[in-house]
Design brief:
Elements: H1 3-30, E1 36-38, E2 41-42, E3 45-46, H2 51-58, E4 62-63, E5 73-78, E6 86-91, E7 94-101, E8 112-113, H3 123-130, E9 137-138, E10 145-153, E11 156-163, E12 166-174
Parallel strand pairs: 1-8
Antiparallel strand pairs: 1-2, 2-3, 4-5, 5-6, 6-7, 7-12, 9-10, 10-11, 11-12
Length: 185
């Protein structure tokens, strides 16, 4: 074997390794990572920030029935129609909880909880994510719905709503806002 042929093989191996790395990167770029809702917030929107701070963070107006900085409680949605299954509970001008659910129109959000649980997940997936000690509680207002509460401490947590063994909605944020079964009421 000559020195030139050894150098050529090294160059070939280096080019092949680089192409393999780039192919792996392009695959990961093509697969969108779901947004994660935590008791601290979703993306740039943080629990506790003002309604106007949330608008600046999102770069879009938030709209909703009863929208006002002084209203006791109302739900906000993005005015641009992006993320139709995401709603922000605003109490006295501050974001206190974020809800994920099936929108009336549009695709279901791919958002997941900090434990990786999204819409459609089953109870076994919740147990794997949050431990065998989870309890399914009966919902006060809907007999066919069960709730799983995940307390993260410091007055924050996540609540998952389950119907027919599957997650149909979930919310995270501050207590007592996350415990309101009928939203603002």
């Amino acid at each position: 074997m000559t020195i030139a042929s050894r150098g050529g093989r090294r160059r070939y191996a280096s080019v092949a390794a680089t192409l393999g790395l780039l192919a792996g990167l392009s695959t990961s770029w093509a697969t969108p990572v779901p947004a994660t809702l935590t008791p601290q917030g979703l993306g740039k929107v943080r629990i506790g920030m003002s309604w106007h701070q949330a608008e600046r963070a999102l770069g879009v107006k938030l709209t909703g029935e009863g929208a006002s900085a002084t209203a006791a409680c109302w739900y906000a949605d993005r005015s641009d129609g992006i993320d139709p299954g995401v709603s922000y509970m605003v109490e006295k001008g501050r974001i206190t909880r974020i809800d994920i659910g099936q929108p009336r129109k549009g695709a279901s959000p791919s958002t997941v909880t900090a434990g990786g649980i999204g819409l459609g997940a089953d109870v076994e997936a919740i147990r794997r994510a949050y431990g065998a000690g989870i309890r399914l509680e009966a919902a006060e207002i809907e007999p066919d719905m069960r709730l799983v509460r995940v307390d993260t401490g410091k007055g924050r947590g996540t609540v998952l709503e389950i119907r027919d063994g599957k997650v149909t909605a979930f919310r995270s944020g501050l207590k007592p806002a996350i415990d309101y079964s009928e939203g603002c009421s």
